[in-house]
């Protein structure tokens, strides 16, 4: 329970059902696109589908304005997972895209296994068939 509360305060992602990302996320899916894993913070979220990462960046005070960003797996050239240390409350997955200077970072609650679950799906998709 304490981990969930701290995760809500710090914004660390936890694994959720795809429908929990909301209607804007569901609208962004293509017909037949399969969600392999979904993660949500207090306001934002992201999902790994069978061909891309979909990011939801809710903006403004109410969060009603939402930017939906797609990162196709073929654009990813590097990624890493930083596991939490003894005093750390989170773990981090970083993804570098071709043409992008800074990585996109995703923060997860430590000890939930969510960071490694996301890394596993990402590795399988980047590797290809």
Automatic annotation (TrEMBL):
Ranges for domain Bacterial Pleckstrin homology: 7-113
Pfam families reported for this sequence: bPH_1 (PF08000)
SUPFAM superfamilies: PH domain-like
Species of the source: Teichococcus coralli
CDD domains registered for this protein in UniProt: PH-like_bacteria
Name listed for the protein in its UniProt record: PH domain-containing protein
Family matches, as InterPro entries: PHb, PHb_sf
């Amino acid at each position: 329970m304490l981990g969930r509360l701290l995760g809500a305060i710090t914004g660390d992602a936890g694994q959720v059902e795809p429908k929990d990302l909301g209607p804007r996320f569901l609208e962004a899916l293509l017909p037949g696109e399969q969600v392999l894993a979904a993660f949500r913070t207090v306001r934002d979220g992201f999902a790994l589908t069978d061909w891309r990462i979909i990011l939801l960046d809710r903006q403004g005070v109410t969060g009603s304005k939402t930017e939906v960003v797609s990162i196709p797996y073929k654009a990813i050239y590097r990624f890493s997972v930083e596991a939490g240390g003894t005093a750390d409350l989170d773990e981090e997955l970083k993804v570098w895209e071709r043409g992008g200077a800074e990585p996109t970072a995703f923060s997860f609650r430590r000890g939930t296994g969510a960071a490694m679950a996301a890394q596993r799906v990402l590795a399988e998709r980047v590797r290809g068939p």
